[in-house]
């Protein structure tokens, strides 16, 4: 049974990607530095978990954010699962994928307004989801309809 979902919004990004596409936009140096400084404390509750899957949007900035988080948690980035539902912000597809997931914890790295909307959909909680923010949602008995916000950490200032 899925025990928790950790929603992570990517860090501060450049305005234009090197390829001229939204998907190619990267973290700013300041944004990456802020995440490297904040995430060891922010992600501390996840360090003791054994079964953690990383779902990542195909956008470069989400992958860079996920790599910083994975480094803190000693997880190999080769184990990332790319989920287009995170980039496309497809609630129905994401929830179907989540419902099909096995045991443990899913860390999903993506974008707003999707992260904010998903937290609201699952828990009814309305919290700001600034860049780099992290929210942990627990599922009672693995039931996605019985979700509660465990903790929330607002993203670091960049």
Task: Provide an overview of this structure.
The protein has 158 residues and is α/β, with parallel strands linked by helices. It is built from five helices and six strands. It has a single domain (2-153), classed as Phosphoglycerate mutase-like (Rossmann fold), CATH 3.40.50. α2 (60-72) links the parallel β2 and β3 (81-82). The protein has a six-stranded mixed beta sheet with strand order 3-2-4-1-5-6. The protein is globular, with a radius of gyration of 14 Å.
Per the principal axes of the C-alpha atoms, what is the gross shape? globular
* Class from secondary-structure proportions: alpha/beta
> Given the structure, what is the number of helices?
5
Q: Helical proportion?
A: 25-40%
Strand content: 15-25%
CATH class: Alpha Beta
Question: Looking at CATH, which topology would you report?
Answer: Rossmann fold
Order of helices and strands: EHEHEHHEHEE
- Rg over CA atoms, rounded to whole Å, is 14 Å
What is the assigned CATH homologous superfamily?
Answer: Phosphoglycerate mutase-like
What ranges have pLDDT less than 50 throughout 5 or more consecutive residues? none
* CATH architecture classification: 3-Layer(aba) Sandwich
Termini gap: 37 Å
Number of domain units: 1
- Care to count the β-strands? 6
